[in-house]
Design a protein that fits this description.
Blueprint (H helix, E strand, L loop, with lengths): L1 H17 L6 E3 L2 E3 L13 E3 L2 E3 L3 H16 L4 H11 L4 E8 L2 E6 L4 H9 L7 H9 L5 E2 H4 L2 H5 L2 H7 L4 E10 L5 E9 L7 H38 L4 E5 L4 E4 L1 H4 L5 E3 L5 E3 L2 H15 L7 E5 L8 E7 L11 E9 L8 H6 L5 H11 L4 H8 L3 H15 L4 H8 L15
Antiparallel strand pairs: 1-2, 3-4, 5-6, 5-9, 7-8, 8-9, 10-11, 10-16, 12-13, 14-15, 15-16
Helix pairs in contact: 1-2, 2-3, 2-9, 13-15, 14-15
Length: 425
Amino acid sequence: MREDRSGVIRSLLGDAVRNRIPHQGDVGGIRCWRLTNSRPYPMPMTVGQGRSQMLDANEFGDAVAMLYEAAVVPEIWPRAIGRLAEIAGCTGGLLFAHSGQGTNWVASKEFAPVFQRFMEQGWMNRNARMAGLLAHGGTGFVTDHDLFTDEEMERTALYTDFLRPEGYGWGTATHVRSSSGDNIVFTLERKFELGPVSRRETLLLDGIRPHLARAAVLASKLQLQRAQASLASFEKAGSPAALVGSGGAVSTINPSFEALLGQVIIRARGSVALDDERANALLQKALADLARDRLGGTCSIPVPRKDDSPAFIIHVLPIRRQALDIFSRAQAMLVVTTSERSLQIETSLLCELYDLTRAEAAVANGLLGGLSVDELSASRGVTRETTRSQIKRVLAKTGCRSKADFLRRLAPLAHFPTGVFPGRG
């Protein structure tokens, strides 16, 4: 997997270097440079902690490389955001995707606790800064003074009741509108005592912005491709499947799922329902629990036969993705099995839904195949302690309290081809 990612990243960086950023000339005593086919030339300047610094070519290239790598490896985003904050003399920053379905976000290590409090206290619904940013309509980085006067900031609750009490109050931000309708916002935050972000610093960030925008859009497209690949795997196995977003709306279905329309109803704005009243009540409860993050594991709902249509079971599988994967809109997958055949899909795909590592996936497969701790350890050449530790991580990631709970929830969905067991060999 890592080798595949590296190849993608090398390809992206090659494209990035070939895409030139126009030279912006001398502005405010600082010269902004472009990327050429050979190497990124230096962009002098940033003020960090009150001290002038010189940004050399290697540092700038590393910052751009991190953006593209984060598009493929979401765990990189906090470091990439922190690096850009350092370049602009800011304390930290964050990237978030906001839509009617909710807000996914990731922040640098320093600013993450602050933004967590921001979300918990409900400030996203009264975010005057974001409203001003979207109304501004510019294509570059803007500062607080581009959006508000000093007097307006003194009258704005976001500044007086949250940012300044947290020690912040100055920042710069930009946004990109994705093809899916999400507002992707990137903001860098500075401690209040360090003063406002200067025009020189936003010019520097404007030089990097095209790469930031491309990386964000790329990450969103990669998520869509991964979702489509998962549905294609179920289709190949003959299993109807659909992806459900954070708002409970169906975002994508495979052809087999489409054939169920009638017993399954797709309503306005993509909301999903079942024609059978009792089954639909169970499905709506599962989706409501999912929205409140209370759906502990797979929920299986029997749907009775109707006319010539066969009975089936619809399984609601929560997708426990990396919290850092802000562009993942899917919260669950709906998978349908019939009484005539079980789900013909290898458990590796189900394990992927829960963000298991390869080692953890092998352990999960072993548990589903009925292996004991000793058998798992022997088949994989590891100690009992290692296996027990991996089992604990599998249970934690799948939201199960015990091995028995894990088997009860996932075993009905697992299928091993005859004579093949993924945990061995």
